[in-house]
Specification:
Chain lengths: 260, 240, 418
């Protein structure tokens, strides 16, 4: 598996995609730091960029890359290799190269910033961490969708739809549901709904660090109490991990049965 | 060496293979022929474990290949479409296969044979279709394996390269290897094949040498014989 | 007769003529109460360091009571200690202890009932129920005292400095911690409250009702249960105070209720769940304040009218301004700095060319559905905020700053020093 990973990784590391991903985050982070001159504001600005665009780019890229490397996959399939190694290796190679692009793109401007200013790495590390997780999750989802859907356009459409659903529609539905059911205690429902969407979960994990004051009012205190505790944090991390492992599990399962 | 035992396969509603049984053994070149969509590539892919049969079993060296992968160490495979990771150079691609398969391949001889030296440092995406196919051939043939499977090997090749390919295949046959080949170029079949496996309607419609085929069809030319088989099938269908 | 009064005045004002009584455990006056009983008008009582357990001591004449090295005055049976009904009493340098809670009377270490011009200066109060209780007093000064309790339950606790129906009070430089309300004022007019630090009190840091024409400035109200409440009053001036980290479900930096014609200038509101919450706050000038990192910088209900909010800095608050549903806006917002302003200033006059709407769609949604807070900063919500900004549906159309400042205003609140 390591061999496949290595080759996919190098291939993508040198492809324009990883470079674009890297430069994109580098420019945005550097730009925000330059305009605001303040790392806290920069992280607030980056929050939605990371939480929305990491999944989108991972989705688009995951799909495009899967279909583009179909022949390479076939070449590998004819080699004396286990199928699992081929697919998981390719997935890891792709998602790792993207993650590194993202990670360095965001980190480098902060490191430069830290030469002259003090940087609070506790929020930054959550931001970096969450972005990497989202890249892993959405690469896996798009990889899985592409694996199931032989038609390139259909696969692409489905992947984007998945992203749209989780990034936008889901929150709309949640808001609708909460406002419809406002006679019931809704904290648990919204807590559960948050865990069922990795984008929401990532956002909430960051929000807790950025909007403490607001969260301590109203029902916010309930969420704050839950996510703020080390138990809540462990649960959140496990949820993100599960969100990564499940699509990867299905990638493995479906690739075992699929004809090429 | 290779046994297809009563293979069935359908893709959705389309039944491609309906009980194919055939064996290849003892060396020599077998050409798998048939109209488009007759399941030639499917059969080859099944041998390589890329497509799974709905029913039936494939044996390699007397063992079923289901869920196995080590046996592929004994097969050199040239896929139909030569597309590789675009950002790797030719050398890196060769090294990738060497890395995966291990052992001691002899790629240099093939690189010389197909004049690829000047292309080694180029990225795959900058290569022409013909050059890509040459790289494809190098990758497939650089190992000394008892079984060789060539799916449309002539695609995009210039005449010189085609001649060299033919020589190469004949050389391998001389070593007593089992070679499976699919192609649309009849001259290639005529020049190379010891035996023809003709697939039609999801079954083995004919199996034998070229003279036997000509006999069977009642024609003195291979191309015409094939055409005859197809027409014959057509006539049969009307009868039914 | 006039001459007699004249002579009496001279006699009274001449300290040499007044006696000084020393109290210590092995002196012949061993109790504070004895010394008070023996004293004449204008006498001075000096209490040497030691521990004195005292029952109720009533003071009905001008006296000066001075503690050396903070002698400890313990309440016998936990009852109140000083009960002052005379005028011009000065109490300084004492430490009061062990006044226990009572549900039937307002027990205080120092209880002023009607005495005027009392000075309570530089004393310590440790776990007293009420610390200083002032009723019907004029011109009383409470300065440099430390009142610390460790109460946990609001119902079992009382106020550190409690003033009722009094005038011209000065409450200055006191530190109050762990009481129900840090400072409590009801029916108190023309008073000054300054330089006090009210920290971690269970209910309000400052509780202020039916008290007009008062000033409070340079106070720090920090981490109190419900922040500061100013209610049912008019002509209040609040200058240069700091409202810090008042967190909680119904916690405010500053709660304004039924308050009129007042000024809130140069204050710092930082890290509060709600910076200012205004209900029927009329004709209030809110100028030159800094609102930093609050959940809601200002929540102004529709009943608040004719207020002017100008030259304030709104920096990194989750929400800057919110109001109740379908409220109309009768307040003026102008020339404030909003850190989330994204307009431009083409003519470079320091004022943004595009008006800023500080009320977000989402903060209005939270009025209906507080649980939706979990969607804060969601892309979907940001999208709705954006649309609402263009086509206002839930937010008052005319609530906008027509002249938003492009650069942060130098308001000289303490924020830049911390």
């Amino acid at each position: 598996m390591l061999k496949i990973l290595k080759y996919s990784f190098y291939d993508l590391l040198r492809s324009k995609w990883t470079l674009i991903y890297f430069l994109f985050f580098l420019l945005i982070t550097q730009g925000l730091l330059y305009i605001t001159g303040d790392e806290a504001k920069t992280i607030v600005g980056l929050l939605n960029v990371v939480v929305i665009l990491c999944p989108l780019i991972a989705t688009v890229f995951g799909t495009v890359n899967f279909y583009n490397s179909r022949e390479f996959t076939e070449l590998l399939l004819a080699q004396p290799l286990k199928r699992r190694d081929i697919f998981i290796g390719q997935y890891l190679g792709m998602t790792l190269s993207l993650s590194i692009g993202y990670f360095l793109g965001v980190l480098i401007p902060f490191v430069i910033h830290s030469i002259t200013y003090t940087v609070d790495y506790s929020v930054l590390s959550i931001l970096l961490f969450v972005g990497v997780f989202l890249t892993f999750i959405f690469s896996a989802l798009s990889f899985l969708i592409s694996l199931i859907t032989d038609n390139k356009i259909k696969g692409f459409g489905l992947s984007i739809l998945t992203w749209l659903l989780l990034a936008l529609v889901y929150d709309g539905m949640q808001l609708f549901l909460l406002s419809m059911l406002d006679n019931y205690p809704l904290e648990k429902i919204s807590l559960v709904m948050t865990f069922l969407n990795p984008i929401d979960l990532s956002r909430v994990m960051l929000m807790l660090k950025l909007d403490m004051s607001a969260l301590l009012g109203y029902t916010g205190a309930v969420f704050n109490k839950f996510f703020g505790s080390s138990f809540g944090y462990a649960i959140s991390l496990s949820a993100l991990l599960i969100w990564t492992v499940i699509p990867v599990y299905f990638i493995n399962r479906i690739s075992m049965k699929k004809d090429f | 060496m290779i046994q297809f035992q009563n293979i069935y396969k359908s893709f959705g509603k389309l039944e491609v293979l309906k009980g194919v049984s055939a064996g290849v053994d003892g060396g020599g070149i077998t050409a798998i022929l048939g109209p488009n969509g007759s399941g030639k590539t499917t059969l080859i892919k099944m041998l390589l474990g890329m497509v799974y049969p709905d029913k039936g079993e494939i044996m390699f060296n007397g063992k079923p290949i289901k869920k196995e992968w080590q046996y592929k160490n004994d097969i050199s495979y040239l896929p139909q479409i030569a597309r590789f990771p675009e950002n790797l150079t030719v050398t890196e691609l060769i090294n990738l296969i060497k890395d995966i398969r291990g052992g001691t391949p002899n790629e240099q001889r093939l690189i010389d044979l197909f004049d690829l030296d000047s292309h080694l440092g180029k990225k795959i995406k900058h290569l022409s279709g013909g050059t890509k196919q040459k790289v494809n051939i190098v990758l497939a043939m650089m190992y000394d394996n008892p079984v060789i499977v060539l799916d449309e090997p002539s695609t995009g090749l210039d005449p010189i390269a085609l001649v060299r390919l033919k020589d190469l295949v004949l050389e391998e046959r001389a070593k007593g290897k089992n070679i499976l080949i699919t192609t649309h170029i009849m001259s290639l079949v005529e020049d190379l094949s010891d035996e023809i496996l003709f697939l039609l309607e999801g079954k083995v419609y004919f199996r034998g040498t070229i003279p036997e085929l000509k006999d069977f069809a009642g024609e003195d030319n291979l191309e015409k014989s094939i055409a005859h088989l197809l027409e014959h099938k057509h006539a049969e269908n009307i009868k039914v | 007769m006039i001459r007699l009064v004249y002579i009496l005045l001279i006699v009274l004002s001449f300290p040499v003529l007044a006696d000084t009584h020393i109290v210590c455990s092995d002196c012949h006056i061993g109790k504070v109460s004895n010394a008070v009983d023996m004293s004449e008008r204008g006498d001075t009582i000096i209490i040497k360091s030691g521990v004195y357990t005292e029952s109720l001591i009533e003071i009905d004449k001008p006296l000066t009571i001075i503690g050396e090295n903070f002698p400890k005055i313990k309440a016998k049976n936990g009852e109140k200690i000083f009960h002052i009904i005379g005028d011009s009493v000065t109490i300084t340098g004492l430490e009061f202890m062990e006044v226990t809670r009572s549900f039937t009377e307002d027990r205080a270490a120092i209880n002023i009932q009607g005495g005027d011009y009392i000075s309570i200066i530089n004393n310590r109060f440790t776990n007293t129920f009420f610390g200083i209780y002032i009723a019907k007093s004029i011109g009383t000064k409470v300065i440099d005292n430390r009142l610390i309790s460790n109460n946990r339950i609001e119902m079992n606790s009382a106020n550190a400095i409690h003033a009722w129906s009094s005038k011209k009070l000065t409450v200055e430089n006191n530190y109050v911690e762990g009481h129900r309300d840090g400072l409590y004022f009801e029916f108190c007019d023309n008073s000054i409250i300054k330089n006090n630090h009210s920290y971690r009190n269970l209910r309000y840091g400052l509780h202020f009702m039916f008290s007009d024409n008062n000033k409070y400035k340079n106070n720090i109200f920090e981490e109190n249960g419900a922040g500061v409440a100013v209610m049912y009053s008019h002509h209040i001036e609040m200058y240069k105070n700091q409202f810090l980290n008042n967190w909680g479900q119904s916690s405010y930096g500053l709660l304004l209720k039924e308050i009129k014609d007042s000024k809130i200038h140069y204050n710092l509101f930082k890290g509060n769940t709600k910076g200012i919450y205004g209900e029927s706050a009329i004709r209030i000038n809110i100028f030159h304040n800094d609102f930093v990192q609050n959940g809601w910088a200002m929540q102004m209900m529709g009943s608040s009218e004719q207020d002017t909010i100008s030259h304030n800095n709104f920096i990194q608050n989750t929400f800057n301004v919110s109001t109740n549903q379908n409220a109309k806006n009768y307040n003026i917002y102008e020339k404030n700095y909003w850190s989330d302003y994204n307009g431009y200033d083409l003519d470079k006059d320091g004022i943004g060319d595009v008006p800023h709407r500080p009320v977000k769609f989402f903060s209005q949604v939270l009025g209906y559905t507080p649980e939706a807070i979990i969607l804060l900063r969601s892309f979907f919500i940001e999208l709705l905020n954006f649309i609402e900004n263009i086509v206002p549906v839930l937010t008052p159309e005319n609530l906008k700053d027509l002249q938003p400042m492009v650069k942060q205003i130098d308001n000289d609140t303490v924020s830049k020093h911390i």
